[in-house]
Amino acid sequence: MSFVDFLSLGPLITLCAASVIAMLLVAIWRNHRIVYSFAIIAFLMSMTAVIPAIIYIPHPVPPLLVIDEFSLFNTGLILTAGLIILLLSFNYFEEREERKEEYYILLILATIGALVLVVSRHFMSLFLGLEILSISLYGLIAYLRARERSDEAGIKYLMLAALSSAFLLFGMALVYAFTGHMDFPGIGAALRQAGYLPVSVMAGFGMMLIGVGFKLGVVPFHMWAPDVYEGAPLPVAAFIATVSKGAMLVLLIRFYQDIQGNDYPMLWWMVAIIAVASMFAGNWLALTQQNIKRILAYSSIAHMGYILVAFLSGVQTGLEALAFYLVAYFITSIGAFGVVIVMSSSLQDAETIADYKGLFWRYPWVAMVFTVMLLSLAGIPLTAGFIGKFYVVMAGVNGHQWFLLFMLAINSVIGLYYYIRLVATMFAVPAPGQQTTVVPALPIAGNITLGILTVLLIGLGVYPTAMMQLIQQMMRILS
Amino acid sequence: MILLVLLIVLFAAALLSWVAGAKSHAACRWIALCSLLFNLGIVIRIWLAHTAISGRWWYQYKVDWVPHFGISLHLAMDGLSLLMLALTFFLGALAVLISWKELQTRVGFFHFNLLFVLCGITGVFLTMDLFLFYFFWEMMLIPMYFLIGIWGHEHREYAANKFFLFTQAGGLLMLLAILGLYFVHAANTNVYTFNYFELLNTPMEATTARWLMLGFLVAFLVKLPAVPFHTWLPDAHTEAPTAGSVVLAGLLLKTGAYGILRFVLPLFPAAAAEIAPLAMLLGVAGILYGGMLAFAQTDLKRLIAYTSVSHMGFVLVGAFAFNEIAYQGVVMQMITHGISTGALFIIAGALYERIHTRNLWQMGGLWLRMPLMGSAALIFVMASLGLPGLGNFIAEFLILLGSWPASHLFTILATIGLVIATAYSLRLMQKVFLGPCDRQYAMRDLNGRELVIIISLIIAICWLGFHPQPVLNTTQNTAYVIR
Predict the structure, then answer these.
(1) What's the confidence (pLDDT) of residue B482?
(2) Which member of A9, A43, A392, B448 lies 3.0 to 4.6 Å from A310 by CB, making a disulfide possible if both were Cys?
(3) Spatial separation of the C-alpha atoms in residues B217 and B201, rounded to whole Å
(4) Which residues of B touch A409 (CB under 8 A)?
C-alpha cells in the first residue's frame, strides 16, 4: 500500500482505527460522555482526512476501490450526516438506556460500511461494505432492548436484510459467470463486447436489484421500512433514512454508469417501474398514517422514487439533480427526525400526530423548524427541497421523460396533502384545557443542531449556486 | 433598484411585525400599515412621474441569481404591473385596517403572513424571470394557507387544504411547462435562460407550443378561477377571515388573469389563438354558471365568492378576444373587481362582526339599523352589477365591445350575464338590508375606521367610473397580442 493510497483512504482508515479505539475505551472505562466525545472527535478527524485526499484524485486503489471527486463528495456528505446524527444522539440515549456506550461503536462501524460502499467499484468491496453496514444496523435497530417494537424491528430487518443479501450474492454470481469480471468497468466492457444482454445476466441484474432495492426501501422491497422506522431508536431511524440509503444510491449510480445501463432498455424499465410504484405506494400509504415515524418512512419511500426519476432521465443534469436532491434530502430527513428527537421525552417518543397539535403555540421554535423541514420535503420555495425538486423536474424535461414527470407531479400533490396536514396540526389552535401527554426534552445540543440544519436548508434554497457548481464539477468526472 | 425596495420593505416589515407582535399589537399593525402605505406612495410617485413618458418598460433591475441555470433576479415594471401593484398595496393597507379590531389572536403571526403573501404577490407582478415567477407563485401559497387555516371560520382546515392542493396541482403543471419552454428554447438557440424577454420569441413546433401553453393556462385558470377548476374558491373565500377574503378576491385571483395576459398570450400567440374559442366558452360558462350559483346561495360570503367566478369569466372572455379594447377592459375589470368585491367582503366581514352570522335568512331590514353600511353596500352592489358611473361598467362594457368582433355568440351570452348579475346583486341587497327586521336590539353603524376604508373604496370605484382615462393610458403601451 503506497503512501498515496494511505492518504486517499484516510477518512476510512481514521474511522476504522476509531472503532477499535472506541471498543478498547469502553472496555477500560465505561463512560457515556467520554465515548460520545471520542466519537465526535473521530468523525471530525475523518472529515479532516478528506482534505488531503482531494490532492490525489482521481486515485483508484485497484482492484476494489476508487477515490474520485464523486466518492469524496459523498464521503463528506455521509460523514457530515453521521456527525449530525451523533450530535442528536447523546441526550436521546442518556435518558433511555443503561449501556449506551456500544451504540457509538456500532454507529462508527455502520458509517464505515457506508463509506466502503461509496468508494467501491467491485463486487467484493460492495458486499463487504454492505455487510458491515447491515450487521451494524441489526444491532443499532434493536438497541433499546427493553422496547418490544425495537426487538421486532431488529429481527425483521435481520431476516429481510439477510435474504436480500443472498439475492444480491446470487445475482453477482450470475453476472460473474457470464462476464468473468467482478469489477464494474470490467463487467461493462465485457457486456459491450458481447453486444447483447444474455438472460443470465439480466436475471443477475434483477436479483441484484432486489438486494439494492431492499436497502433503498423502494417498492416492492419496502415492507420493512415503516416498522423499522417505528421501532428503531430515532437517531438510528435517521441514519437508515439518510446514510444507509444514500450510500446504496451512490453505489447504484456508479454501477449503472460503469456498465452504461442506459443502453439496456430492459434495465431502464425495471428501474422505471420501481420508481413509479415507489412514488405512488409511498405517498398513498402515508396519507392515512397517524404516526410521524411511519409518515416519514413512507415519505422517504416516495422520495426515493423522485430520486430515481432523476436517475432515469439519462442526462448529465439528472446526475447533478440526484446529487443535489440527496443533499437536500439528507438535511431535511435528519432535521425532521431531529425534531422528533428533541420533542421526545424519556418516557415516550413523540410519535403520534396528536403530540404535535398546537405545537406552534407552545414551542414556536421547534414547530418552525419542523414546518421548514416538512415544506422542504413538500418542495416549497425558499427551501433546499424546492431547488432539489426543481432540479429533478428539469432533468426529467431535459431527458424527455414526460410520463415519469407527470407521475411525479401527481405524487407531489398527493404528498403535499400529508405534509400540509402535519403543518396544519402544529398550527391548529388547541382547545382550552387540553393537555398533551409528551413533555419534550428539548436538549440544547439538539436545538443548536436543528438551528444549523434549518440555516443550511434555507441557505441552499436561497443561494444554491455554490453547491450546484461543486456538484457539477464532481459529476463531470463521473461521466 | 426601486423595484427591489418594494419587495424588501414588505419582507422586512413582515419579519418586524412578527417580532413586534409579541410585545404590542398596535405596533405590529402600524408597522404593517406604514410599510404598505410607503410602497403605495412609491408606486403612485412612479405613476405620476411617468404618465407622460412613452416606452413600455419603466424600470428594470437584473442581477444573476443562479447563473448555472440562467436564472436571474430580474424585475421590471410596465403599466400593467404598476396598476396591479397599486391595487395590491391599496387593498393590502385596507386589509390591515379591517383586521384592526376583528383580529385579536396571534396578531404578530397574522401580520407576518399577510405581508408575506403581499410580498409574494408583488413578486409575481414584477418578475420577468420564469423561474422567479414560479418561485413567487408558490411563495404566495403558504402564508395564504395559514391565513385561512388559522384565522378562518368553522371549516377552515378543509378550505385551506383544498385551496392549497388545487393551486399546487396547477402550479406543478406550470413548472413542467416552464421547464419545457426552457429546454425548447435551449435546443433552438443554445442559450439556457429563464429570461422572459429572451423566451418571448422562441421558435417551436405548433404541437409543442400547444402543450406548453396548456401547462401555463391550467395554472392560471385554476387561480382565476375558470369554471371546471373553480370549486376551491367558494370554500376558501367563505372560510377565510375578512382580510384573507379581500386578499384572495382582490389580489390572488388577479395573479391568474395577469399570468394569462403576461405569459400565455405573448409566449404562445398562435397556440392561444387556437384555443381561444374554448377559453371564451369557459369564460362564458363561468359568467353564467357563477352568476346562477351566486343567486342560489344562502351564505353571504359564499354569494360574493360566486360573483367572483362570474366576474372573472369576463376576464377570460376579454383576454382571448385578441384586441386592444378588450384587453383594456380586462385590466379595468381586474382593478374594479378587486375594489368592488373587496368592498363587499369588507361589508360582509363588518356584518359578521356585529350579528355573527353569514346566513342571509337571518338578516333583513338592516338598513334601518345601519343606514351608512346599507348605502355603502348599495354602491358596491351597483358596481358589481355594472351600473354606469362606476368602474365595473367601464370594464365590462369595454370587454363586451372588444369581444364582439371575436365572437358574436359569446358576447351575447356574456351580456346575459349582466342580467343575472342584476338578479343576484339585488337579491343580496334585499335579503340583507331591506325587508322586515326581526332584530330589536341596536347595532352600531360603521365606525370611523370602517368609514375611512369604505369611503376610500367608494372614491376609487367612482373615480374609475367617471374618469378611467389615466388607467387606460397607463396600459396603452403594453404590447398586447392582437390578431
Answers:
(1) 58
(2) A392
(3) 18
(4) 169, 172-173, 175-176
Asked if residue A58 has a cis previous peptide bond (ω within 30° of 0), the answer is yes
Residues of chain A found within 8 Å of residue B105, distances taken between Cβ atoms: 429
Q: What is the pTM of this model?
A: 0.88
Q: Which residue has the cell 468473468?
A: A180
Our CA-based measurement puts residue B225 at a distance from the nearest CA of chain A, in whole angstroms, of 19
Q: What is the ipTM of this complex?
A: 0.82
Q: Does the CA dihedral A431-A435-A436-A437 come out positive or negative?
A: negative
The three grid cell numbers given for residue A382, joined into one nine-digit string: 425558499
Interface check for A431 against chain B (CB to CB < 8 A): the answer is no
A295 touches chain B (CB under 8 A): no
Write the residue in B141, B161, B176 that is nearest to A397 by C-beta.
B176
Q: Is A427 on the interface with B (CB under 8 A)?
A: yes
Instruction: Give A335-371 pLDDT, tens digit per residue.
Output: 999 999 888 877 777 788 888 888 888 888 888 999 9
Report which DSSP code applies to A243.
I
Distant-in-sequence, close-in-space partners of B35: CB < 8 Å, separation ≥ 6: B9, B10, B12, B13, B115
Backbone torsions φ then ψ of A471, nearest 5 degrees? -65, -40
**Is the Cβ of A412 closer than 8 Å to some Cβ of chain B?**
yes
Tell if the CB–CB gap between A464 and B142 is shorter than 8 Å.
no
- Summarize the confidence of residues B30-57 as an average pLDDT: 83
Question: pLDDT grade, residue A435 (50/70/90)?
Answer: low
pLDDT in tens, B128-176: 999 999 989 988 888 999 899 888 888 888 899 899 889 888 888 898 8
Distances A405 to A286, B39, B276, B334, B406 between C-alpha atoms, Å: 21, 40, 27, 34, 37
Domain locations in chain A as residue ranges = 277-478
> Per-residue confidence at B202, pLDDT binned at 50, 70, 90?
confident
Asked whether the beta carbons of residue B138 and residue A380 sit closer than 8 angstroms, the reply is yes
pLDDT for A455: 94
- The average pLDDT across B437-461 equals 84
